[in-house]
Amino acid sequence: MNRLFKIAQHVNASADAPSTSLGACPTASTMSEASKSDDDVVICSALRTPICKARRGGFKDMAPEDLLAPLYKATVDATKVNPKDIGDIQIGNASMPGAGAVSARMSQFLGGVSYETPLSVVNRQCSSGLQAVANIASSIKAGVIDVGLAGGVESMTMFPMGEGMDPNKFSTHLMDNDGALSCLMPMGITSENVAEKYGIDRKRQDSMAVESHKKAAAAAKAGLFKDEIVPVKARVKDAKGNVQEVVVSADEGPREGTTLQSLGALKPAFKAGGSTTAGNSSQVSDGAAMVLLARRSVAKKLGLPIIARMRSFAVVGVDPTLMGIGPAFAIPAALEKAGLGVNDIDVYEINEAFASQATMSVDHLKIPAEKVNPKGGAIALGHPLGCTGSRQIATLLPELKRTNKKLGVVSMCIGTGMGAAGVFESEQ
């Protein structure tokens, strides 16, 4: 029997009987203590591109390095940092071969940062952008560098999710190990598993989707994204191959007027009789984001703006068949490291990979709905995989400033069964 068919058969069987194991083993680090210190890891800038629809949006003809390049210049312009003071760069990506190591290195040159500044890349799938920020923060905390750039990028147009993954090239022992095999379970099926296990029906999922679009559309209309978005000059080809240069300055995903009725007409996307649809799942998108971090003492010495500090970071493992529940366990781990509780946080940016898993995480932690994704989430804004973690920081910090709030959390689920979370404190 063909191995691909065997895997699909196993995946379908697993979807009908999801594992009940919720064990999570946290690994976390504290970046800054409760009281301010010259040794704190601070954030000097957090910016992003607009998020565009993959395959048909404003960035469909843009290479990942062209998405990143404008952010280098915008970061330098916003902070007046001398590029020579940047000790390291790390970029997150989920789908490019080698996490886009060559592409990321090229992007810094296109963005005006010289070869003297080193660069690396990281792939922790949907948390790659946050992982890059945590890695640079850890290097600062450890004394390896004093100033660093971190970010993430994804062109889901040019590098579709899962493209190039050939199950026939995996270990021949996969069929003998349920845990290993479940890592190949389609993300949509894990969403169905979460919905079934935690009793999250179609109406609740669609309701979260409606709210996501409503909040994102209202935020865009009120100009709440202007402080985080860097307009990008994009070269777009039409159906005849003609190239036109346009300036993309706004997110393409939010749909004003989305209703339960309109979403209710959509068919299940992953499983017959299921509840996960294209309307209550994150959008397939293109985009990039970038964060400048520094040691507080060095930021002050160099005259860099200090807009926030990173308090903690945590990443946990969960059952791959229920991968979406990751935030429910990563958030408490990060909060514990920061010496905080759920109720201490003013704003939660929880990635809406699927409405099922985001709803489960909010329910599990008993987070008040008004604190979650106040400017909309990935269902409305989109989810460029490797970009999302750093994009959420760029979205969080202006909201904390606008509302005169202090503490925020960024969190997301991760394919193959993980979750990550970071705690940030505004100083604006």
Description:
It is globular and about 60 Å long. Residues 1-28 have low confidence and may be disordered. A hairpin with a 5-residue loop joins strand 7 and strand 8. By secondary structure, it is of the alpha+beta class. It has helices spanning 3-16, 64-79, 101-110, 128-141, 178-182, 187-197, 202-221, 260-264, 296-302, 326-338, 355-365, 378-381, 388-402; strands spanning 27-30, 41-48, 52-53, 88-92, 119-122, 147-155, 232-237, 243-248, 285-295, 308-317, 347-350, 407-414, 418-426. The strands form two sheets. Strands 1, 2, 3, 4, 5, 6, 9, 10, 11, 12 and 13 form an eleven-stranded mixed beta sheet that branches. The chain has a two-stranded antiparallel ribbon with strand order 7-8. It contains 13 helices and 13 strands. 34% of the residues lie in helices and 20% in strands.
Structural class: alpha+beta
Say how many strands there are. Answer: 13
Uncertain runs are 1-28
The first-to-last residue Cα distance is 61 Å
Shape descriptor reads globular
List keywords for this structure.
disordered N terminus, eleven-stranded mixed sheet, single chain, 428 residues, alpha+beta
